[in-house]
TrEMBL record:
Organism ancestry: Bacteria, Bacillati, Bacillota, Bacilli, Bacillales
Protein's name according to its UniProt entry: Transposase
UniProt-listed InterPro entries: UPF0236 (IPR009620)
Keywords: Coiled coil
Keyword Calcium set for record: no
Species assigned in the record: Texcoconibacillus texcoconensis
Family in the record: Belongs to the UPF0236 family.
C-alpha cells in the first residue's frame, strides 16, 4: 500500500482537488458567459443595438477570478453604451465581483465580528483573497433597505422591549451616542422545547423627535396599527426616555420594569446578605408590596456604603412606578383581554447583547457608517429587501428557500444539459499531476479522480 499512496495526506489531497475544481469551474463560468453573449448578439434588435467592439470583463466569483471579453454596444435610441450580457443577467461587471460574493461579504460582515474578519472568513472558505475589508465596507455603505407594506396584527396586544446601547465616535472631539432600540413582536410560539417570538421587528431611533412619538409612526408604517384599538406592553429599564411611554400612551400601554435589571441589581446589593433569598422570592412571585417592604427594611443593614447608596437609589426608582413590578397579564385581564399564551417579558437584554457584540467591544464609528450598518443589520434580522450595487441581496435563509423551491421548479432543461456537457471538457487535463509519468505513486492515487 505504501508503494501506491506515499507522502500525501487526505488534507493535501482535498486541497489539491478543491483548487483544481475551483480553477476549472472559473473557466467553465467564462465559457458559459461567452456563449450567452453570442446568443444575445444573434437575437438582439440589430437596428437599435450597434455592436462596437469587445471589452474585458473580470470579476471575483466563488470559483476565483473569471475573465473573458464581452460585446459592447451603442443603444441608438438612447445614445448610451451598454453591455447587453450584464443587462440580461442583472449584473454590473464593472463592480469587479459576482452578486454571490457580494451577498456573502455583506452578510458575514454584519453577522460576524468585523469587516476584516469577514474578509478573512471568505478567504478561508473560498481558498483565495476575495475582497478586502474596506471593499466590504464600501459595498455595505451603498445598500438601501426597502420597507415592507404594513402587515395586519393577529391580536390587539403588541409586545415591546426597549433598551439603549452606547457607541463610540470616530470623529475627534465628538462624543459617542446612545442608540435607542426597540424590538416588537406579536407573542410567543412554542416549538417543542424552543420558544420563538412571533413576527419580531426592530426599530432604531434616529430623528430628533421624542422616542415614543417616532416609535408610534414606526408602528403605523410597519403594522396596521390603530392607537385607539391596540394595546402595547412595554418592557424596559428605568431610563427617563423609556418611562416616558406612560405619559405618551397613557391607558393604551402597560409599562413593565425589566425584571432582569432589577434582579441583577438585587444580586449586586444583597449577594451575601441574610435577606437575599427572601427578597428574590418576593420579586419572582410578583409580591410587589412584600418586595418593597423588604428593600426598605434592609436600609442600614448593609455593611458597605456604596451598596447602601445603590439600595436607596433602587428604592427611589421603584417608588415612582411600583405598579411596573406587577404581572402585566393580570392587568390585561382586568381590562378584559385574553392573555392565553402570554409569557413574562424580558428579551430586551438578549436583543441588546446581539447588537452590542457587533457595535461595541472597543469599536468606534462614523455617523454614516453606524447608521448604514445598523440599517442593514436590522434588515437582515427582519428579512427586509436590501438593494445592493449588484441588485438584491440574497440572505442565506433566502438561498435555502430558493433551493427548496427548485424541487418544484427546476432550471431550464437546456441550461442543465449544457452545463453537464461543458463541465467535463472544461476540467479535462486540469490536474497537473495527472500529466506526469504514470509510474509515479501520487499519479496513481490521483488517477482515481478522473471518474468524478
Amino acid at each position: 500500500m505504501k508503494d501506491i499512496i506515499p507522502n500525501i495526506t487526505m488534507k493535501e489531497l482535498e486541497q489539491i482537488t478543491f483548487q483544481t475544481l475551483r480553477e476549472s469551474f472559473a473557466q467553465l463560468m467564462a465559457q458559459i458567459l461567452i456563449e450567452y453573449d453570442e446568443l444575445i448578439a444573434e437575437s438582439r434588435d440589430k437596428n437599435r443595438f450597434q455592436l462596437k467592439d469587445k471589452r474585458n470583463l473580470r470579476f471575483e466569483s466563488v470559483y476565483g477570478c473569471v475573465e473573458l471579453k464581452r460585446n459592447y454596444y451603442k443603444d441608438r435610441e438612447t445614445g448610451e453604451y451598454v453591455y447587453l450580457l450584464d443587462r440580461y443577467l442583472a449584473f454590473d461587471g464593472n463592480k469587479g465581483m459576482s452578486p454571490v460574493v457580494q451577498d456573502m461579504a455583506i452578510e458575514l460582515s454584519v453577522t460576524g465580528v468585523s469587516y476584516r474578519q469577514a474578509s478573512h472568513a471568505l478567504e478561508k472558505l473560498l481558498g483565495y483573497p476575495v475582497i478586502s475589508h474596506e471593499a466590504i465596507r464600501q459595498q455595505l455603505l451603498n445598500t438601501e433597505v426597502v420597507p415592507k407594506d404594513p402587515e395586519p396584527l393577529e391580536q390587539d396586544v403588541l409586545f415591546v422591549e426597549v433598551d439603549g446601547l452606547y457607541t463610540k465616535s470616530q470623529e475627534k472631539n465628538k462624543k459617542g451616542k446612545e442608540i435607542k432600540i426597540a424590538s416588537v413582536h406579536q407573542g410567543w410560539e412554542v416549538n417543542g422545547k424552543r420558544t420563538n417570538l412571533v413576527k419580531k421587528r426592530h426599530y432604531i431611533h434616529k430623528d430628533n423627535r421624542p422616542f415614543w412619538e417616532s416609535f408610534e409612526d414606526f408602528l403605523m408604517d410597519t403594522y396596521e396599527y390603530d392607537p385607539t384599538k391596540h394595546h402595547l406592553v412595554i418592557n424596559g429599564d428605568g431610563a427617563k426616555w423609556i418611562t416616558a411611554c406612560r405619559e405618551y400612551f397613557q391607558h393604551n400601554a402597560t409599562f413593565v420594569i425589566d425584571r432582569f435589571h432589577i434582579a441583577r441589581e438585587v444580586q449586586r446589593i444583597f449577594r451575601n446578605h441574610s435577606r437575599y433569598r427572601s427578597i428574590r422570592k418576593k420579586l419572582a412571585n410578583y409580591d410587589v408590596e412584600g418586595f418593597m417592604v423588604e428593600l426598605n427594611s434592609a436600609v442600614g443593614t448593609i455593611d458597605n456604603e456604596k451598596k447602601e447608596e445603590r439600595l436607596e437609589e433602587l428604592i427611589n426608582q421603584l417608588s415612582q412606578y411600583p405598579e411596573a413590578l406587577d404581572d402585566y397579564r393580570e392587568k390585561l385581564k382586568e381590562k378584559g383581554m385574553n392573555t392565553e399564551g402570554f409569557r413574562p417579558m424580558g428579551s430586551a437584554e438578549g436583543t441588546m447583547s446581539v447588537f452590542a457584540k457587533r457595535l461595541k467591544n472597543g469599536r468606534s464609528w462614523s455617523t454614516r457608517g453606524l447608521d448604514k450598518f445598523i440599517d442593514v443589520m436590522v434588515a437582515l434580522k427582519d428579512h427586509l429587501e436590501i438593494k445592493t450595487l449588484q441588485g438584491k441581496l440574497k440572505q442565506s435563509q433566502d438561498h435555502q428557500e430558493e433551493r427548496n423551491k427548485e424541487k418544484e421548479a427546476k432550471p431550464p432543461k437546456y441550461f442543465v444539459e449544457k452545463l453537464k456537457d461543458s463541465a467535463p471538457e472544461a476540467i479535462r487535463n486540469n490536474i497537473g499531476y495527472l500529466q506526469h509519468a504514470i509510474g509515479k505513486p501520487v499519479i496513481g492515487a490521483l488517477k482515481g479522480l478522473k471518474g468524478f
